[in-house]
Amino acid sequence: MDVKELEVNKTLPFDPSLLSVNISLRQIEEIAMTVSQRCHVTGANEIAWALRALMLTDLTTLAGDDTAANVRRLCLRACYPFEPQFFDKFFDRALIPEMHTAAVCVYPARVKDAYHTLQQYDKLDKVAIAAVATGFPTGQYGLQTRLQEISHAILAGATEIDIVINRQLALVGDWEALYNEVVLMRSACGQRAHLKTILAIGELGTMENVYKAAMVCMLAGADFIKTSTGKETVNATLPVGLVMIFAIQEFKRRTCQIVGLKPAGGVKTVRDAIAWMTMVNETLGIRWLRPERFRFGASGLLDDIERVVREGVKKLEEEEALKNLPVSREAAAAETFCKELRKKKETQ
């Protein structure tokens, strides 16, 4: 197995001044509501946004009954979500190799299955392998056990590690202890894997805690901050995403270090995805809408992407067919008669 060194974020010294924040929940919710009302698109634009969402998705299976066969099917969908001939009429065929998800996301025990499948399809350089780790989803394991799980996943072939933070430390406000744990996890990943830190926002209690947890993880060297495990009662919501975006902006302003964002859990439809992409575009900028900086963690989103794209292409085909319909004799005669009347009127 080839081991490549990746470009990863650096660990920065713990700085309590970055944790100072005062958040107006009402204002955050109003901004998020305004953004969600501006994201309605139709027709070819909706197809384009759906395909953009596809290329930003970490296609996920995190079930207790996952098997090697399940993971192989997941990888097949990730690599080939549409049959190649589907795009022949309306899309450049050169774009077809780029029509795949950003990554697949599985448990550490299933990483090897994903690696062998992607290797078989010659997609290891195109579709990343992400593994949840550190006692996902609760994180209620000993620190050494959590660190060993990271090493196990990387040795099996994972190039991205989605760790869960210790929510207990966040809830009691022991931010430096949380920082120290994430630093060790960053060290365990080294340059062999990107580090995504799952904040589990539904269990942090307040928006201030979400902001502070995001900031601590970024200081510790996270490449991405991720909203949720998908197992909490509250998962990815636009207001929480906005708070995390504000943290990313402030961290970049203070340190010049760029950190990505990954909403996970609750993003089930193309409309949900467009709302998130609109918010990211209006706050962080269009450059963030690429796999290196933004991802969706989702298991069901691809189903809706496929539905929207197929229905959209079908409508385009119907419109194209209507344009090419032969004109009937009666319609042609009526058109000729109208032209003659217009010509007489102009002459008079």
Average pLDDT rating = 91
Helical/strand content category? alpha/beta
Q: What about the largest sheet?
A: 8 strands, parallel
* Strand proportion: 5-15%
How far is it from the N-terminal to the C-terminal residue, by CA? 85 Å
* Total DSSP E strands: 8
- Uncertain runs are none
Domain unit count: 1
Radius of gyration: 24 Å
Task: Provide keyphrases for this structure.
348 residues, alpha/beta, TIM Barrel, eight-stranded parallel β-sheet, 12 helices, globular
SSE inventory with pairings:
Blueprint: H1 25-37, H2 43-55, E1 57-60, H3 68-79, E2 103-106, H4 111-120, E3 128-133, H5 143-156, E4 160-164, H6 167-171, H7 175-189, E5 194-198, H8 207-219, E6 224-226, H9 238-255, E7 260-262, H10 270-283, E8 296-298, H11 301-323, H12 329-347
Parallel strand pairs: 1-2, 1-8, 2-3, 3-4, 4-5, 5-6, 6-7
Helix pairs in contact: 1-9, 1-10, 2-10, 2-11, 3-4, 5-7, 7-8, 8-9, 9-10
Describe the structure.
The chain has 348 residues and is of the alpha/beta class. It has one domain: Aldolase class I (TIM Barrel, Alpha-Beta Barrel). The chain is built from twelve helices and eight strands. An eight-stranded parallel sheet has the order 7-6-5-4-3-2-1-8. Helix 4 links the parallel strand 2 and strand 3. Helix 2 packs across helix 10, helix 7 crosses helix 8 and helix 9 packs parallel to helix 10. The longest helix has 23 residues. The mean pLDDT is 91. This is deoxyribose-phosphate aldolase.
